[in-house]
Every structure is written in structure tokens, then in C-alpha cells.
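Replying to the earlier thread about multi-chain prediction with a worked example.

Input:
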Amino acid sequence: MSSVGQVQPQSMHFTSPLPLRSGASLRDYTLVYETYGTLNAQRSNAVLVCHALNASHHVAGTYAGLDKSEGWWDNLVGPGKPLDTKRFFVIGVNNLGSCFGSTGPMHANPATRQAYGADFPVVTVEDWVDSQALLLDRMGIAQLAAVIGGSLGGMQALDWALRYPPRIRHCIAVAAAPNLSAQNIAFNEVARRAIVTDPEFHSGHFYALGVVPKRGLRVARMIGHITYLSDDAMGEKFGRQLRNGALSFSTQNVEFEIESYLRHQGDKFSDYFDANTYLLITRALDYFDPARDFGGDLRAAFSRALARFQIVSFTTDWRFPPARSREIVRALLDNRLDVSYAEIAAPHGHDAFLLDDARYHALLRACFDNVAKETG
Amino acid sequence: MSERKDMELIAEMVPPGARVLDLGCGSGELLAHLRDARRCSGYGVELADANVLACTQRGVNVIQLNLEEGLAMFEDQSFDVVLQLDTMQHLRNTERMLRETARVGRIGIVSFPNFAHWPNRVRVATGRMPVTKALPYEWYDTPNIRVGTYADFEVLARKDGLRILDSFGIQDGVEIRRWPNLLASVAVFKFERA
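Result:
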């Protein structure tokens, strides 16, 4: 198995306004994306990979001259890997509102010529899926062999099955949920408050002031990170280990290794992630609820779907636990759709969807083998 | 190998084109056979990771689920046939699963090792627990926590309000309809809710 090698992002500019679920619209916008592998003559082997909260269009491969620049799902996507780029044309798209290239809060609002900042319209999973579909239109791809995503990416994969039923043959949703629980929303709200109450946030218009609400971003990332790991994984990795071997009887210095780890993660994150983007993406998570338009009936929501589904959850994921994936499976079964469901006994918690677990990857490999049988 | 013949005997009980739920579907061999030979659709239910993977590799729909947790995921009468083959004897909740089978399927088909097969009786008569091809385990390592007989099942079915539509034994891949409780190592019942 090898890497797709060096890759380069591409971009596509759209001048027709994108109507958003909120009623607002994006007047013009750019989508940044990457592709790996070759689109076949029948244009039937395209697989869309949807990204989660802090990832991007950079799914696989590396950037020239940049160390450690592997894409976020490089262990899954590449020649000979479970999502094999020798067979599939794989597409990663950066979602609108993100901070990695597609139009987002740090870009200029055409109406004011100033950075959008907090005025960037609230975007939803549905809006992202619509924009991805428009990109595929431009690429001449009428139907995807599969859509795959984990976590928030899994929600987009599910939404593809609902918004564009004939346009996808397979839907693979990993560590996803049919909506966020109150607890999930609560975690998001703590993260948002950390950002919004940072004095450097300036109501979201901090770009022109040359400051970054890093404190808020750090805390947001710390709380998020806790929820991505299982108690056991954290215990195994850090336990109660002390940073300096002995108690220093300080309330503010780093005492425990876990504190050091979380601070490090927070620092790293605050160096590259955008505060407005964090608010937007957590809101998109909160809003995702395809059953809402059907009186809370998820079965009715999925009655439009046509795809074959593979749903995957992880036993130690307490952010999007297996019970939430089973709700999806049940709705699919009730609609007599083709569905398989795997509950992977992985120790890592929610983050397991990004890791190279042998059972998980063997299953996805088998799943994509089935997808490949139909691509011609 | 009689397992293949056992499978084909049972497959013949499934109406062509039926929507099937196979509880404890193993590697999905029967479901693949029903799909290819009888145009059936449906899902397997399995707990073991290796079997879930094998089903996916065969292109058979499989739901990873512990049957001890029941079939809450499946609606009443949502399948033409619910199969519970060589599975019942591994379940603590045998009776509940039987009721669930009849709830979810219009027809239930179960198979299990018949403890009253004559070699088992002989072995018990000599004072030892049977170890045979159908029951290959020692008493201390058997995964079969519910061993019953062909005749026992008829009693349980009556108790749980199940109407037996057909029943027979299988011995060495051959259907046994005469004295199955004595002459067959495998018992097969087809039933519906009365």
C-alpha cells in the first residue's frame, strides 16, 4: 500500500447565488477540492469523501515541501488502500464556512468588501451537500458510486441519500448520528461560549484588528478533544501521570500529563483554526436533524432514500454512540433499504473513525469491493 | 459434506422471492444461496466480527447485533421468513427469541441439534454426556447452553402459541420424517403465530 503522493488542491468558482436553508444566500463562492485517482470513461467510479469538524478537502497524499502534510484520511485512501484510488476517483471538498480555502468567514463579503467575520451566513449540512452537488455537476459526474464520511462527514453522507437519492449508489456513514443529543449540543455550546467570550473575539470581527481569539479556540478544542476520546483510551494514554513526577501544589501550572496534552492540542488548534468557522460548523452539527421535517419520524425522512447503506459505529464512542447509529439502521430497515451495520469494538472512542483499526478497515475494504463491482 | 445438503433442505422451505431475516447468519452462506438460487432479499444478524466481515465480503446485508438483546430493531411481521438455524441452542433467552421470531416473521424456521437422537440416548444411558458430530463438545466447553429435543420443541411451540406448519429431522443430509426424534441429529420446524 502506498500513498497517492503529492497532491494539489484545485478550486472552482461559482457565480450563481447558492440559496441556503436559512433563507439567505451566498452571492458567489469558491469551493476548494482535491481529487485522487482517475475518473473512468463512464464517469461511474467517483467517491465523495465528506469531512468532519476540523478537517478539509485534503483527504490523502502530501503537499510538496511540507513535512507531515498527509491528508486526514490518508490511511484509508490511496493505491491498494480500502478506498483504492486505482479503482475509484476520490473527491474531497472543503465545506463552505470552513477556513481551509472554500469561501468562509475570513473572505471578503461581496456586499461590503470587508471580511464576512460573524456575518458569514449560517450554513447547514444541507447547504454543504447542495454545494457539493453543484461541484459534481461542473465535473460532469451525474451519479456517485459512493459517498463516505465520518462524524459530521457521516451526516453529510446520510443527507446525500435524502437530498439526491438517484445521485448516489452507496452511502457509508461512520460514527454518525441522526441528530445531536442535548448533551452533544451542550458541549458545542460550551465551546462556542469560550470563543465568543474571549475578549479578542470582538463579536466575530477580529480580522481587521490583527488579533485572534486564541484563548477561546484553545478551550473549545480542549472540550471537544475530551469528547472524541474514550475514558479508557485517555486513562491508558495518560492515567494520573504527573508532568514533573511530583506534586507541585500549584493550581495553575500543568500538573498532570492530560493537562499538558489538552493544552498542547488547544495551542496547535488555535494556530490554524478560525474562530468563526468553529462557531459555524458546530451550529451545522446542532441543526442536522433530517427527521425534523417529518415530525421527528426518521423512518419517514428516509422514505426518499434509494442508496445501499453501510453504517458503522464504535463501541467506545460516547459522543455518537452505537445506539444512535442503530436508530439510523432501524429507519433504513423500516424502509426496506439495503443496509449493513457493523459495530466495531475499538477502544479509542469517537476518534476511532480516523484510525487504522484492522477490523474497521477490513470491513470498509469489503464494502468498497462491493461498490467497485458495480462501477464497470 | 452434509452441512451443504442441510442448508439446501432448509432453503427449499423458503418461498422464492421471500424477504428473509437470518438470525445468527454466520458467514452469510445461506442468504447468498437464497439470493442467488431463489431471488430472496433480506438481512443477516450476527454478533461475531469475522462473520460480519464474511457477510460483507459476500455482498450479503448484515446487521451486527447481539440476539440476547432481542429484535427491537425489527418491526412486527416485517419479514416473510425469519430463520434461526443452529442458533437457538446458543441463546440464554431461547423462549423470548422464539416469540420474537414469530413476531417479526410471518413464518419462522428453526433448526437445532436434537438431543434425543438415538446415539445421544445410548451415550446418556452409559452414564456419559453425548459427544457427536451434531454435538461435538464436551459438557464443560460446550457453547450449547440450551440442549433440547425434537419432542421438547413441539411442547414449547404449543406453550407459546405457535402453529407448526411443517417439521422434520435431518440426518446426514437426508430428510427424516419417520421417528425424527429418534433418528435425526438435527430438528427442523417451520411455524407461524397461531
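Chain A has a mean pLDDT of 96.

Feel free to reuse this layout for your own posts.
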